[in-house]
Amino acid sequence: MARKKKGKGKKKAKQNLVTAESEYGKAPHTFVFHRGVVGKSVLQLLLDIRRTMEPYTAASLRTRKKNVLKDFVSVASPLGVTHFMVFTKTDTGTNMRIIKIPRGPTINFKVTQYSLAKDVVSSLKRPNMYASQFRYHPLLVLNNFSKDEPHLKLAATILQNMFPSINVHKVQLNKIRRCVLFNYDPETKLIEFRHYSIKLVPVGISRSVKKLLKTKVPDLSRYKDVSDFFLNAGQLSESEAEQEGPDNEVTVPQSMSSRGNIAAQKSAIRLVEIGPRMQLQMVKIEEGMCEGEVMYHQFVQKTSQEIAEARTLRLQRMKAKEKRKKLQKANVDSKTKQKEEHKQKSLDGIKKKTEQEEKSSVKAVGEEQEEEEVDDDTEYYRQEVGEDPDPALFPKQKRLPRTDKRKASSQGTRLPQKKFKFSSKSSKDSENKVRKGMKGNTRRQDSQERTSSKTFGKKSPSMRAGKKSGPLGRNANKKFGSPDRTQRRGHPAGKGGATKLKKGKVAGGKVMKKSKVKGR
Q1: Which residue, 158, 274, 295, 431, has most beta carbons within 10 Å?
Q2: Quick one: three-class SS letters along 134-194?
Q3: Cα torsion at 182, 185, 191, 197 (round to 10°)?
Q4: Alpha-helix runs per DSSP H in 96-143
Q5: Higher per-residue pLDDT: 457 or 64
Q6: Where do Basic and acidic residues bias regions lie (predicted)?
Q7: How far lies 188's CA from each of 147, 184, 277, in Å?
Q8: Residue 470: closest CA among 478, 513, 432
């Protein structure tokens, strides 16, 4: 039997879940957000309005500066959102718009005054704030909206559609915890917005009995008997919120979760304000979503001719907009087509290039197989002469393989060349050696020219031109050998049979005399 009860309970819970989901999906939902910079106080007012519209609203909705109204509309349709409440702030004041999506209309209000929820709650002596009352939607109350003015009727229908409808025969009183009031003042043409928490209190019960109902044990030390505690005349319920009379007393048709409220018994209704407050002024009503024809304006009155001109102008704008959209769509389609063609061409070119590379690689492999035997000068010399060559004859050079050379030439890159780096000290020494050698060569050439002129009495063409270097150039010393110091000074040399010079003086300068030449 216990198992059967558990199965029935699970089945009933599933049915309740399905009905709750269907009710939640059918109920109207609202997005509350702001556009532009609104300030801290208006932002807090927006959060208070979101809490008022719970649970059928997005409590943690976040917006960005880049978002436009179309973004919210595109997101709202799959989520079942039916209304927008948009707050904006200008230099003149704060504005609020109520938009019925997706096709309007739009009601524009000016928020003349407002008070935040925290300010309202702080002004109360006994606030009635608890989290569970926001689990259920509030009850809507409209006052003075039943006049013959069409704009008021339209505003009343939009406000009614923002909140879920109530079936009086099936409603559960425990789910009615809050109340939203819209009161229209015909003299000032302002709408008062209030938010209350509903509380039921049993009538005709003293405070002492209420304490017992609240499961609080009273202090009975002052009384001799329990009857004195209950029969004390000063303990009657005469609070400020509870007024005696038939105005606020009702007969409860259902048993309530609060203590003392029994079915078919009288209870008093208390409304405790939990905020926020707003004072609204209806400015205008327009068709569509913020861009249609103005149906009502409180401050501007137009004639029928002006209305017709505005309508024709709006139609022209709509036609121009549609034309621009078609042109943009055609441009986008042509660009996408060009991109696809370019993509296909590039893919074909890549395919052709890969095929060419494969063919060239196959050809290179064939050439490598044909030229496997690399020419080696050292081996050739060894085979022909029969001896190993001198190392200086064939200096070893690091060569790249043929495949690397081919790759470098095909890619158009230069092969790295060997660079010789000398230290600063070694480079200076080598320069000095070269300079000394050059000086020695020039001196030797000069001495040879002088000896030849002494022996034969003629000057060489280089001496006539004033040049230090001889006719043989730098290779003169290598062919004939360098003369000794004794030869330069005119002394005879032992080996080789050098000439013997004699000096003589003549007026006007030195004259070179012929000397006796010894035979070799």
Answers
A1: 274
A2: HHCCCEEEEECCCCCCHHHHHHHHHHHHHCCCCCCCCCCHHHCCEEEEEEEECCCCEEEEE
A3: -30
A4: 117-122
A5: 64
A6: 332-361, 443-452
A7: 15, 9, 17
A8: 478
